[in-house]
Predict the structure.
Amino acid sequence: MRHGSSLLKASLVFLLSAPIAGCGGGDAPTEAEREAREEAFRQSMSGVVLEGFFTVGDGAELRKERYEISKVSKLGGDIWVFQARIQYGSRDVTVPVPVRMEWAGDTPVLSLTEVAIPGLGTFTARVLFYDEEYVGVWRHGEVGGLHFGQIVPDPNSE
């Protein structure tokens, strides 16, 4: 295993486990607080682009990825739909992606488990969003890796 990949994995494990382990502390949010944070998330993730990089396996090579998110909406419970244009490698598809959204304190964590995405295949992922950044892990069949990047306004968004 390469040193850079090990360091990135260790950082990712810390980032994903720290909020869940209770570093943020506090009681469960009230209904009004939950609704406010969900609305803030919906607004912050609509009309944006996730621009970043992903790795494959233990490799240290960073490959470009791009997700254009036109809008995010809550279906009910903890199920949300991301209207997304997904671009990586030679792939370029626009699809609605249903995900489970969980919260580590005030931090949204996308949870996708064995979900078939038309034109791409079946994926599992965990992605943490914080401020204007995202970081996560992904798996597609026997292959997986890490991904991370910036959340920026989409200049083509209305």
Summary: Residues 3-20 form the longest helix (18 residues). Strands lie at 48-54, 63-76, 79-88, 91-104, 107-117, 121-130, 133-140, 143-153. Residues 22 and 105 are 8 Å apart (CA to CA).
